[in-house]
Amino acid sequence: MTKRLRQASVAALGLILAACASGTWVKSVDSTYAGNLAAAQYECERDVRQSGYYGSGLIGVVNAQNFFGNCMTAKGFYFQAPDPAQ
After folding, report:
1. Predicted confidence band of residue 68 (pLDDT cuts 50, 70, 90)
2. What does the H/E/C string look like for 14-71?
């Protein structure tokens, strides 16, 4: 994968994460992660960028998004969708 294609994939990942982020990441009560949400998101995004190749196109973006979600979960966060009743 060329550097330009990798950068485009990461940019697409950012756009998809922003578009799909209608909820929020919440820290579990029993989390041992000492950092805050912003620090965890930064660390996971950095890990996604440094970890390598996920495939191309939409599949690559979905794979990278799954990696990000797994990273956040490993840090003691969970994704909470908005309450539809509100």
Report:
1. very high
2. HHHHHHHCCCEEEECCCCCCCCCHHHHHHHHHHHHHHHCCCCCHHHHHHHHHHHHHHH
